[in-house]
Amino acid sequence: MTDVPLALLAGGLGQRVQGVSRTMPKALFEVAGRPFIAHQLALLRHGGVRRVVLCVGHLGDQIEAFVGDGARFGIEVRYSRDGETLLGTAGALRKAAPLLGPLFWVMYGDTLLDVSFGKIFDSFRNSRALGLMTVFRNDDRFDRSNVVFRDGRLLAYDKRAPTPEMTHIDYGLGLLRDEALALVPAGESCDLGDLYRTLVARGMMDAFEVSRRFYEVGSPAGLAETRRFLEGRDMDFIARYLNEVQDVAAKIDHDAVGGLVGLLDDVRSRGGRLFVLGVGGSAGNASHAVNDFRKICGIEAYAPTDNVSELTARINDDGWDTAYANWLKGSRLGANDAVFVFSVGGGDADRGVSVNLVRALEHAKTVGARVGGIVGRTGGFTAKVADACVIIPTVNPATVTAHSEAFQAVVWHLLVSHPRLQATTMKWESLSR
After folding, report:
1. Per CATH, which fold does 252-430 belong to?
2. CATH number for the 6-239 domain, one of 3.90.180.10, 1.20.1050.10, 3.90.1150.10, 3.90.550.10?
3. How far apart are CA 99 and CA 7, in angstroms?
4. How many CB atoms lie within 10 A of CB 393?
5. Are 79 and 54 in contact (CB under 8 A)?
6. pTM of the entire structure?
7. What pLDDT is attached to residue 219?
8. Going by C-beta distance under 8 Å and a sequence separation of 6 or more, which residues neighbour residue 331?
């Protein structure tokens, strides 16, 4: 599904919000502290979309200047421009066809939709229809209903002349095959609603019913409502995230933390060294932790990522998978030493994830060094071979990385503050009255 591009139709004039849209496209309206399109791209990225073709017209240069190539949103963005004559939503799709390929998503640039792209795509995967329309039971609540949808079938659609039997509405997200664009006159202005009406009338359009309402910025009332929704959602997320933090803290295994205290105390008493390994954000944590273990606990500690020249030379000459293991060999890792891993997954050679950690730990076990870790999920290879390991509990699959890396810091600060390990009073504590 991630290979299927999405056409985002952002070329309209914004006639219902002309007071603003004369000088700014709807995509850039400020909503909850960010341009509206930033919220859209974030939801698309979350939904699994990785390629977007922005169909722009009115003030499209402003959109391009803000979005750019999409890299900062985690999405590849390309552009299709109407030119001097606005082509309408269907005409814009036909012009963008070379960038879209045989199958593509379609979404309006003034709507905010929080849906499961995967479920919608799976429902259409084996269909022979030329398109799919998402529909929502609207009953004229948020706009005029324009769809007859019964028993899972799309029976009629007309946004220009809705009838009383129309209880559903075009939700604003669809899938189209490139053959459907052959029904759009080349170079002429044509509305997507007209193309949809033709496809429905010919029985070439599937439907998928969604349950969450849509939000839009195409009208003053819709813009105000969308602002309220996003501002409220932001506050809901903050509360939910902080509640998760409490939940994670409450579920951490105290005995596992005690095991790390004992391991570190033993390494120091033997005069051993501590080698802290991390990748990505965990590598940054490793550098910070090394400082604390040395300064506060008096443990001789090192991290391979602190010497970029050596590490990248080893990666260049030996390969990434063995870079940490060879660094440990160069450090003459021995039985009195310990390797301490910070990682979300803990390493998994079979899946090709953080194999450098796996090879490093294999070497550590070979020479009899102790192994400790603070990891997320189920701990991977680290948890399997560690002498002591804290697994950060998963309370929400969507925030595993965030909580795992954050709680690495919580746990190591607990360790260096522990009375068995702390050898030096920290500055700010010593200044307290």
Report:
1. Rossmann fold (3.40.50)
2. 3.90.550.10
3. 9
4. 19
5. yes
6. 0.60
7. 85
8. 273, 275, 302
